[in-house]
Records
---
Amino acid sequence: MSVKRTSIHGQWSSRWAFVLAATGSAVGLGNIWKFPYITGENGGGAFVLVYLFCIACIGIPIMMAEILLGRRGRRSPINTMRVLAREGHHHPAWQYLGWIGVLAGFLILSYYSVIAGWALAYVFRAAGGLFVGAGGERVGEIFSALVTDPERLLAWHTIFVVMTMIVVSRGVQSGLEKAVRFLMPALFLLLAMLVGYAMSTGSFSQGMAFLFSPDFSKLTPAAVLIAMGHAFFTLSLGMGAIMVYGSYLPDDASIAQTSVTIALADTLVALMAGMAIFPIVFAHGLEPGAGPGLIFQTLPIAFGNMPAGTLFGTLFFVLLVFAAWTSAISLIEPAVAWLVENHGMSRVMASVWAGLITWVVGLGTVFSFNLWADDTIFGLTFFDLLDFATANVILPLGGLFIALFAGWTLSRKVTMDELKLGGISYQLWYILVRYVAPLAVVAIFLNVVGLLQFG
Ligand code: PHE
């Protein structure tokens, strides 16, 4: 049976539009905010190597699987999984995969929006010339003044949720395409400039060595889990974001080519962020393991001490906000598409509901940095827990089941039909999605569980 479905939500104008939108989803706070700080916390080079391995051997094949499922089903992830399971006479429980994705989307967006709020706040701090001439200490003070003030965080979080809902309510195709088209090259240029500045700090080689020369004695089982979790997070995998974008993909677009392009662009941005940040960290005697505040405590030093730093700093944080925005939209799109499909809601109503839920859950993150900073479980705040559970548990689990569904449950005919790959490339994907990716995810999980029990 040949399947010629169309999505009720519309379609990308071209393959290129999809690449831009999916890259917009992938490139975000994960690359510029999270990658450097978790690399710093986990010892550098060896961690980066595991992360790169996970992108290539787990991320790319699962991304192809998500896109092909989405395009085949042409619905929100929940309904796509339901329809594909029914069509192939598979177990209806597969649709729960879509549900888990929707849940993950809410949880991630709830804290993502708070961090994006920091970036928004920094646009104004940069523009106001607050960083001019600032050193490590001053920049640290500016950061803690922001995060210890719940009212300010709440205000920025609210603004970011509203911004996201405005775009989502209009439909992801209109506007998003245009924004990403200029955003990506601009972000890239600014990062290149920052790398240039990092070269002038005198600690460039130390920063590069930290990032790229692996010291495997620093690689703990937990670090391996975090590297894998981040591969899912940074590529937007395991929760249906890429699946829902795939459901708007034209039939003739090559899934393999687009996946590789997206993964390459995403990885390049993350590595450049690392190359810009670590030399500054070492040049100013800062702590690589400073945690979630890392970029907010390093980059302002660069902007405060380079020519035209106020201009470039403002521009950088504006671009960071845009990068976060295009990711945030994709986090909530699976839920919104489902509300429209199953509850006959207008996009606007669906967005309002999704935004409200996100906003409320986000309060937990807002307070994690101030009022609730001392309320921890296993030493983790609400924010830490949410971040850990989503990126390192839910997304890899979601990805695991997506790989199992595409590699074992769906017929080869369906996957061949969608991927349209020649012999050896198809075989490579098939081996990766059927064996390598699932086994790697399970092994990394078991490794950590074993540690908890016996360590
Ligand atoms: N990939 C995004 C980033 O790196 C975050 C994200 C995760 C977006 C999961 C969608 C789904 O910032």
---
Amino acid sequence: MKLCMIGTGYVGLVSGVCFSDLGNDVVCVDKDVDKINNLKKGIMPIYEPGLEELVLKNYKNKRLNFSTNLRESVRKSDIIFICVGTPTKKKSNNADLSQVYSVGKEIAKYINRFKIVINKSTVPVTTGDEIEKIISKKVDKKYFSVVSNPEFLREGEAIRDFIYPDRIVVGSNDKKSKKILKNLYSPLVSKGSKFLVTNRRAAELIKYASNAFLATKITFINEIANLCEKTGIDVEDISIGIGLDKRIGSRFLRAGPAYGGSCFPKDTKAIVSTASKYKTNLSVIKSVIKSNNIRSDLLLKRVDSIMKNRIKNKTISFLGVTFKANTDDMRDSSSLKLIPYLSKKGAKIKYYDPSGAKKEFIKLKNVKFSNSIQESIKDSHLVIIHTEWNDFKSINFKKFSKNKKLIIFDMRNIFPPNKIKNLGFKYFGIGR
Ligand code: UGA
């Protein structure tokens, strides 16, 4: 099938390259000329394991192309995917849908035969109805169908999540489109993925409700971790103990710093906003947002207490600063609250992240990027393991640090406490 992905951000690029790998002809379109030229040269705009290899392979065999020409790309395609950003608006918690609607208007200009217009961007309920209205101002409804097909890709695992999804959700009221989409996704369905068809609005809400539920699960275990810290219990035992109940499930029960990234913080706010538009109070999600917002303050209080309120002039090493491992993404990472606070209190911060130095910290006093784990740990009083990169899981602290009083605060519980304590260092984790 001939597919056109509009927007070569995370969703558009990953989905586009994966669809081409399944044998479709895909053109990824973006108005950013530099991005498109770079992609043609094999330079990726994002860090995502496995992406570059797949792009190079499929670009070489001509199943994948990149273009800035929306008109040509739409005209020659059967299915058009809208994959543009829906950030939080500056002055409210609503999703900013301006990019989605402006792409809808553009598509409407170039529809020359029947097209399926799929919205993959994360959007509030009824956005599909709006896109349909926009297009139908220019095009007869028999020439297009607007479908919702949300993505469930995690950064750092996106290729795997695309190829082995738990489910594929298609929201459409039109039989013809459902059949075409089932065919498009058949290579994944035949490997065992569930294919769920709902009406368009339900698919839109499934996406928001999924992210809000996962954020709730994480926040729940983070609060239980707070209680564990006061009662001498290891939260890891609780995660395993409750996760073994199939009704609960073991995933997304890792306690840690506040959840971050480009999705959970934005989507929890947006679903609450949408609900209030329909006079519905999502009180659970509201308290999740609140709890997550104050989590960094709790962690900072813990750092204060671990350091016995003597932060000034202490050297603190951060291992990992991104919001999770295997990504260079800093959006809503808790390190953006922790590092400025500690630097303001007079700590000298050294940080190492496998994805490199971060522009967010350039202007901060006493915050420096180290070129290696060893360099970052050397001469430190406290090491904070902030992100769970594999690179950190077998650090030999004894070899890297001469400081016998080194303290380790493992915010991702990647080490068994005794392993560190047996080396003679002080160990603190989350909820243990
Ligand atoms: C999330 C969803 O997991 C995807 O299904 C969804 O498609 C995506 O948002 C999106 O809407 O585009 P992502 O933001 O990439 O994916 O990352 P997650 O792996 O979900 O992690 C989000 C945050 O929760 C991170 O800060 C992570 O460290 C934290 N987390 C996750 C925990 O603290 N504990 C856990 O057990 C799991």
---
Amino acid sequence: MTIRFDANEIKRDFPALQRMVNEDVPLVYLDTTATSQKPKKVLECLSYYYSNSNANVHRGIHTLAEEATAGYESARTKIGEFISAPSAKEIIYTRNTTEAINLVANSWGRANLRSGDRIVLTEMEHHSNLVPWQMLAASIGLEIDIIPVDDNGCLDLEVYEKHLDKNPKAVCVTHMSNVLGTLNPIKEMATQAHEHGAVIVVDAAQSVPHMPVDVQDLGVDFVAFSAHKMCGPTGVGVLWGRYELLDGMPPFLGGGDMIKRVYLRDFDTNELPYKFEAGTPAIGEAIAMGAAVDYLKGVGMENVWEHEQDIVSYAMERLEEIPGLTVYGPEAEKRGGVTAFTLDGVHPHDISQILDVDGIAVRAGHHCAMPLHERYSLVATARASFYLYNSYDDVDKLIKGLYKVKQVFG
Ligand code: 7TS
């Protein structure tokens, strides 16, 4: 096993990771899949913005307004480069992944889909990539086909091919599962979708923060992700879409900034990306998302990914040592840094609560993936997830904590 960088060095960049919990135990943060911690540089960027340049964007010509607009637009360019988008005009700021997917479902979906059309979803989606499509389907009468998850926690691609034979209009799929950690073969799935004339919408909430993502190389149509899972603040996310698709879509929300001109009974739509950015956006947060991109680029996304691969391989090895413990999903080589597990005879919430006494933060529940849990006949799992700031030592503390859980429950 090789360590790509010293996670303990990286940890020092994150103020929250220095704190104690329960008075005197150091925090072991293993809940990045829910939200990541933020490095000092991102926090300083937010504070600097609100202390110095706070103004609305695209409106004023005074110094502060110009600084705010320049910062907001330069972050857009950085984010575009981070995912190899052909143009910054294709980067739409949203509140988060959820809003980005709702934007596609409501704008692209309502403009392009008709009653009786089919769409393909998967059994491993987060609710954010299920419910917006279910709402649209109920509203306009779509048929939904589901790609099931096989016993190894991977998508059944033979069923995918059968669904494609029915010529769906859209395939909506996660790049990486937030429960099983499964990394889906998006590039191949995109090629197949396009051969059948379908558009492919990728929920990249768990991939963009953890690995190099090149939207052109993946050959996809829409990609959604959130700043708060990639060292950035809450309140801002991104929808990337191919220019010609975005350009042909009607606005999602109406109001300021998304118009070129307004008449009493009509309006002219603004150009991309502003067409989809109605109202005052999360300006400081968007600028700080740019700082998060700078931070991650400084470490190198290849390094982040390889580090997480090392940590998750080690974690799986150690977890599987524990009698009565089951880890769900594929082998380490096919997953990112996520491990959802159950322990015989102990409710996942109890696992989380006992680990918390020793400062170990893991999430318990259905992780907004109820259908996936049902597929395994589970109502909940405990989940430990890893990022660039987690070390082998964190995994050892988790394992020690789990032995303690076993002891408590006899
Ligand atoms: N898609 C995936 C794959 C996710 O993991 C999440 C959040 C979302 C979409 C929604 O992101 P949001 O920023 O719009 O809320 N996942 C989790 C989780 O696993 N635990 O808490 C949030």
